[in-house]
Amino acid sequence: MGSIMDQKRAMAKHCSREGVKAGAKAAVVATIATAIPTLVSARMLPWARANLNPTAQALIVSTAAGMAYFIVADKTILATARRNSFHPNNVKA
Questions:
Q1: What does each of the 93 residues of the chain score in pLDDT, given as a tens digit?
Q2: Membrane-crossing residues (predicted)?
Q3: Alpha-carbon span 39 to 70, nearest angstrom
Q4: Which of 2, 22, 51, 83 ranks highest by number of CB atoms within 10 Å?
Q5: Structural domain span for residue 49
Q6: Would 3 be classed as within a structural domain?
């Protein structure tokens, strides 16, 4: 009985690890994709220069990165769990 729970625990860790890796990659891409236009617009556009202080710029970039991380991590964990549930060697208690 302990080995079944150990296998399930290992599978859950694997799914979580895959989600963290994919989420981190997505957060890096989102950071780059939002930081460049945010910083450029804050320097070039008069409205943005007047209204987007450094705190607002950081908030825009970090919000995009956080959203990307959680969305991609969640989708990856669910996809990995679904894929493993159809695996012929999966464990059923």
A1: 568 888 888 888 988 999 999 999 999 999 999 999 999 999 999 999 999 999 999 999 999 999 999 999 999 999 988 887 776 565 554
A2: 52-73
A3: 24
A4: 22
A5: 26-85
A6: no
